Amino acid sequence: MALLKEYHRFLYEAGTDEAGRGCLAGPVTAAAVILPPGYISDLLNDSKVLSEKQRGIIGAEILSDALSYSIVHIEPAMVDEINVLNASILGMHKALSGLSVEPRHILVDGNQFKPFKKYSHECIVKGDGKYMSIAAASVLAKNSRDDYMRKLHEEYPVYNWQQNKGYPTAEHRRAILKYGLTPYHRKSFKIRNDQLSLEL
């Protein structure tokens, strides 16, 4: 696996990313991470290309090795109120606010962001597969959100969120058709019976 890079060598940079943006249920979860300058990891990569076991291993390493990290959940009601893009940016801002170490620069996965305080930032498309700090944030966001959805599964097991994590799988859509929506579903996504039946 190719080693990811630092954006600025020997400079405190915060990487930030989110998970759960395309889900029908559950929060948008954002993380921000500052890794030690010169940090090296053979395993760290975009969370989407890592197995669950690999994410667990590297996630534990990040929690141990990071100079600072912060993870935030933006609940479905807020996603509905401000839309999923703004919820993602809000989550990243809140995660950055939770860092105990002040960054000198912010790296953002994707192509849309709003300036955060006085800090410079750069949006990088597919940055979670290019830069270590963004990849680290993607892993922490994914791991935290998956844990969150496993807990919600205990409350609403018929949707099998422990498996689909709230994403729009055929199984999840069938469960919505049969059992309706929960308080954890995003109402602004206009999940209607006709949409669901057409897409099964």
First-to-last CA distance: 36 Å
Mean pLDDT: 90
List low-confidence stretches: 193-200
Which strand-content bin applies to the residues? 15-25%
Order of helices and strands: EEHEHHEEHHHH
Number of domains: 1
* Number of helical regions: 7
- What is the level 1 CATH name? Alpha Beta
Give the second-level CATH assignment, the architecture.
2-Layer Sandwich
Total beta-strand segments? 5
Write down the overall geometry. globular
CATH topology: Nucleotidyltransferase, domain 5
Overall structural class, as computed from helix and strand content, comes to alpha/beta
Q: Helical proportion?
A: 40-55%
- Major β-sheet annotation: 5 strands, mixed
Written account of the structure:
With 200 residues, the protein is α/β, with parallel strands linked by helices. The chain has a single domain, classed as Nucleotidyltransferase, domain 5. Helix content is 40%, strand content 16%. It is built from seven helices and five strands. The protein has a five-stranded mixed beta sheet with strand order 3-2-1-4-5, with helices on both faces. The longest helix has 24 residues, at 132-155. It is globular, with a radius of gyration of 17 Å. The termini are far apart. Mean pLDDT is 90; it is low at 193-200. InterPro entries: RNase_HII, RNase_HII/HIII, RNase_HII/HIII_dom, RNaseH-like_sf, RNaseH_sf. Residues 11-200 form the RNase H type-2 domain. GO terms for molecular function: manganese ion binding; RNA binding; RNA-DNA hybrid ribonuclease activity. This is Ribonuclease HII. Its cofactor is Mg(2+); Mn(2+).
